[in-house]
Amino acid sequence: MADGIKGEMVDVRDRTARPRRFVVVGGGISGLVAAWRLTQKHGPSAEVLVLESSPLVGGKLRVGNVGDVTVDLGAESVLARRPEAVELFSELGLDEDVVHPRAASASVLSRDKLYPLPPGTVMGVPVDRTRLSALAGILDLDEVARAGQERTTEALRLTEDIDVASWVTFRMGRAVVDRLVEPLLGGVYAGNADRLSLQATIPQLWQRARAGRPLLEGTQPPPSAPARPVFAGLRGGVGRLPLVLAEKLEEAGGEIRTGVTVRGLARTANGWRLTTGPANGPEYIEADGVVLAVPAAPAARLLSAEVPQAAQKLAGIETASVAVIAAAVPRAQLEGLTGTGLLIPPIEKRQIKAATFSSNKWRWVSDEKPEDNLIVRLSLGRAREESTLQRDDADLTELALAELRELIGRDVRPAETQVVRWGGALPQYEVGHLDRVHRIREAVAGVPGLAVCGAVFDGVGIPACIAAAARAAHDLDVSLRVSA
Ligand SMILES: Cc1cc2nc3c(=O)[nH]c(=O)nc-3n(C[C@H](O)[C@H](O)[C@H](O)COP(=O)(O)OP(=O)(O)OC[C@H]3O[C@@H](n4cnc5c(N)ncnc54)[C@H](O)[C@@H]3O)c2cc1C
After folding, report:
1. Residue 393: predicted pLDDT
2. Does residue 70 sit in the same domain as residue 144?
3. 109 assigned to some structural domain
4. In a domain, 406, yes or no
5. pLDDT over 90 at 34, yes or no
6. Is ligand 1 within 6 A of the CB of residue 51?
7. One domain, residues 418 and 436
8. Are residues 180 and 275 in the same domain?
9. Nearest-angstrom CA–CA distance, 98 and 94
10. Contact 274 CB / ligand 1 (< 6 Å)
């Protein structure tokens, strides 16, 4: 495949001599899926090139090693109730490696005590009247009663988006937000229920709110309903997914260049010119079609010249930075510890927001080195609370471990730890997000040969990213056909 040429521009898109060239910017799961779909669709009639700024593909999917045990250092599971991720596992021949978390439950901290996460909730919001008693403990008796007396009135059909906290507080009382919604929503978005969009983050409840239906309904499934696992993972880590995908993509003729940051994107008479390389020695890559699969901030920078309306909207999207500390803890220190982990809402005034007992949660992790260490993952960082993460690795680790010791009452002294910082990792789906996304896509669709995808669009979870990437590949195709 032709390379970018230092200091001068070479048009490699002579359609009589060469196949079409598609360039995908960003080698996270979104970019790799977009590239994979383009490769499948066009076969040898197109060149597909992925440009990734870091040395490895995968973005927020990454496996690492702590205490001689392989662990996920970013995302660690996929929602199995959506089809996209499990279908991709299958498509890549990974069926044999698909695993599900052990059935044990996680706990949530409330007023300094741990309680099992209650059933019958959607993102922490109670939706099942028959299971309200399971909230006792996490909520006090008055708070449970208030939740059960949901304030409903037919006149209250939501007509426009609202933050999750306002809606749930109005209906069920603030305690439901502080003690149930925040720990779950915080786990996904590292965000704040007072700012996050009901429409974008809990669409099932948004639909009810629009229809004027109550949040609480008798939704307990009949006992005969087969229990389908909600989450899935991969033996060896979900971080393997981009590595396997990259391999298949290259086998199918796609090209991946890592360590290449795209700094500029400009339209030419026939397509696009991407600028890479240092400012004093730029290199240019020509393309017929471009998919941007990068986070909001770089996407805004790259679109600023050609699609300023989209760039401006992307630049306004806030992000949350988070950190994961993976710890290999001598087995004796955690002997008998049950459950898959803990969730800690902001109201409890701790810095860690979650602890995952990976060796309890995933059999493949405990099988790796059963005689030795157990793996615990600690998560820190919430939107607008960057100061916690400004500590150095040693301080951050000590802070997180001190809190863990207090919460589980064990003297945890890990044999090895690893800190991974994910700066600006989680886009905040604030009120009006879906409208913002619609306008960004609309602006991009007005420009031939360009499409966008990534965690900022239709959901931060892996299945949503896969769906948005497939859509971008399709949109690019349509756009080129229309403009041909
Ligand atoms: C700690 C953590 C845990 C998570 N856990 C889960 C989970 O368990 N399950 C789940 O479903 N989701 C989880 N998520 C969310 C999910 O992992 C991400 O939303 C998803 O992986 C984002 O993929 P992406 O490809 O859109 O973006 P990214 O993974 O951010 O990939 C974008 C890529 O673009 C590259 N890039 C940026 N700018 C440029 C440029 N100018 N030129 C070239 N390349 C560039 C970046 O280096 C990066 O590799 C988690 C996220 C985090 C941070």
Report:
1. 98
2. no
3. no
4. yes
5. yes
6. yes
7. no
8. no
9. 7
10. no
In angstroms, what is the span from residue 74 Cα to ligand 1's centroid?
A: 9
Q: Are 324 and 369 in a shared domain?
A: yes
Domain extent, residue 267, equals 5-59+239-317+430-483
425 C-alpha vs ligand 1 centroid, how far in Å? 7
> What ligand 1 atom has the least distance to the C-alpha of 426?
53
186-209: average pLDDT: 95
For 346-383, write each residue's pLDDT tens digit: 999 999 999 999 999 999 999 887 668 999 999 999 99
Best CA proximity match to 146, nearest among 44, 215, 95: 215
Nearest to 75 by CA among 405, 314, 358: 358
Taking CA atoms only, the protein residue closest to ligand 1 atom 31 is: 28
Residue 253 in any domain: the answer is: yes
Average pLDDT, integer, range 53-75: 96
* Cα angle value 111/113/117 (rounded, 5°): 100
How does pLDDT run across 229-241, given as a tens digit for each residue?
A: 889 999 999 999 9
For the CA of 26, the closest atom of ligand 1 is 34
CATH of the domain at 120: 1.10.3110.10
Confidence of residue 18 (pLDDT cuts 50, 70, 90): confident
How far away, in angstroms, is 377 Cα from ligand 1 center? 18
Name the nearest CA neighbour of 23 among 287, 305, 302, 306: 287
pLDDT at 274 over 80: yes
Place of tokens 């900022």: 456
pLDDT band at residue 11 using 50, 70 and 90 as cut-offs: very low
User: Residue 422: CB within 6 Å of ligand 1?
Assistant: yes
Q: Which of 294, 319, 421, 422 to mutate to test the pocket of ligand 1 (most atoms within 8 A of CB)?
A: 294
Q: Does residue 222 fall inside a structural domain?
A: no
Of 386, 331, 377, 382, nearest to 354 by C-alpha is 377
Q: Count the domains in the chain.
A: 3
Q: Are residues 295 and 326 in the same domain?
A: no
